[in-house]
Amino acid sequence: MKRKTAAFLALAILLCLFTVQAQGAVSWGSRGEEVRRVQERLIRWGYMEGPADGIFGQSTYNGVIRFQKKNGLKADGIAGSATLAALGLPSASAASAADSEVYLLARLVHGEARGEPYVGKVAVAAVVLNRVRSSSFPNTISGVVYQAGAFDCVADGQINLTPDSDSIRAARDAMNGWDPSGGCLYYYNPSTATNNWIWTREVRLAIGNHNFAM
Q1: I need a surface site. Which of 94, 102, 117, 162 has the fewest CB within 10 A?
Q2: Are 207 and 116 in contact (CB under 8 A)?
């Protein structure tokens, strides 16, 4: 009886090791698109043979182990954040975080630049990202967007509107590096601006109804 109990416990532990996944990781028993992407990289780089079927089984496990050993990673057979990064793939949690940032940026674009030309929408998104990179502002998109008094759309609630497809696309274009503002940290509509301080900033260019300034 003791032997059977010990064997059962050992099997249970092994099953847990194979099936329990860290957040954002894929491991034994996982299924889906992220597994398939891992398999494709392993096959392409010679660590795995067989089809990329989206099912994490023995061949995928062996391929992950080989890749981890070759690249100085913890050889646990789990494609966690470090292994996914080494494969050039974002983890599910990282991808989800990136998507949420794009969506927040798109909401700001929609609230601030609805009716502006597309390049003007991208420029507004780029200003937010330029602020994130500046030591004078918060270092996250949400921190910049919700900084007190920074954006009218936050104050009047338009930040909560559902962004249209152009606003989402503009946010993605800005996140991918397009900056029509040329590095500007501010923008304003000269026809409606009521803050005297903003008029002291150096205007670099105008796009649609907005001046972009440093």
Answers
A1: 162
A2: yes
